[in-house]
Write a structure and sequence with these properties.
Shape: globular
Distance between the termini: 101 Å
Strand order of the largest sheet: 5-4-3-2-1-11
Low-confidence stretches: 24-30, 40-54, 203-207, 217-235
Number of domains: 2
Radius of gyration: 31 Å
Largest sheet: 6 strands, antiparallel
Order of helices and strands: HHEEEEEEEEHEEE
Helix content: 25-40%
Number of strands: 11
Strand content: 25-35%
């Protein structure tokens, strides 16, 4: 029986003489390990490709969100802040229409979504916003896999944080006024800088947040009347 096994192995190995059964078994084990390593390498490469693809998609979403955010804030004739999760812009639309575009952060389990909800009005847009009955609503998802603590952050001309609750501004009292900032600027409730602070779960650099800060250049605090209207209205 042993002789038959040896002859069969020699035939399988191309009649290579001097090959013992233990040597053949070692070769089989080594080949099996090699196959396992190759399979593991393929799996790791596929996982890395998926990770890079997720990172690239997250980068694209962040880039689009940044461009639209800056554009809307620059071009708005009015904005209304609800809280850290919602801000609505009034913008000029096509063919003389008026757009109300709400930027909304919505928690969804372990993540959050950033989307814009646009309502179209007959127009034209004015410093008071849009008027008339809305003729249509469109929703666009900008970032689908954002961190749940994403938020809109507001500050006044003195760099002091402003927290909004149901549309009402409240100045942060935890930080003392720097000596380089005037009392009027520090006490202003008018928004001078709005930031979108977010990060994506999918990104390999998810711990590095995206901070898109845009100055409200046409609204400044007055030294005689620092509490300007909380809703930005362009001249």
């Amino acid at each position: 029986m042993i002789g038959r096994i040896r002859r069969a192995l020699k035939i399988a190995l191309g009649e290579q003489g001097g090959v013992t059964l233990p040597e053949v078994m070692v070769g089989v084990v080594v080949n099996a390990i090699s196959v396992s390593l190759i399979a593991a390498s393929i799996l790791a490469f596929s996982t890395l490709q998926t990770s890079f693809a997720s990172t690239a998609a997250a980068a694209r979403e962040a880039s689009v969100a940044e461009l639209r955010w800056r554009s809307d804030l620059r071009e708005a004739t009015k904005y209304v802040i609800t809280d850290a999760t919602m801000i609505t812009f009034s913008l000029a639309g096509s063919a003389g229409s008026c757009l109300e575009r709400a930027w909304v952060l919505t928690p969804v389990g372990s993540r959050a979504s950033l989307r814009i909800v646009t309502r179209t009005f007959p127009g034209p847009v004015s410093s008071a916003g849009c008027s008339g009955a809305a003729s249509g609503t469109a929703t666009t998802d900008l970032i689908s896999d954002a961190k749940p603590l994403s938020a809109f952050v507001f500050s006044n001309v003195g760099g002091r944080s402003i927290v909004y609750t149901a549309g009402s501004p409240h100045l942060d009292t935890a930080v003392p006024r720097p000596t380089s900032i005037s009392e009027a600027d520090w006490a202003a409730t008018a928004v001078a800088l709005i930031s979108l602070v977010t990060a994506t779960n999918a990104s390999m650099r998810s711990n590095n947040p995206l901070i898109v800060a845009q100055s409200v250049t046409t609204q400044t605090a007055s030294t005689t009347s620092p509490n300007a209207p909380m809703n930005y209205v362009a001249p």
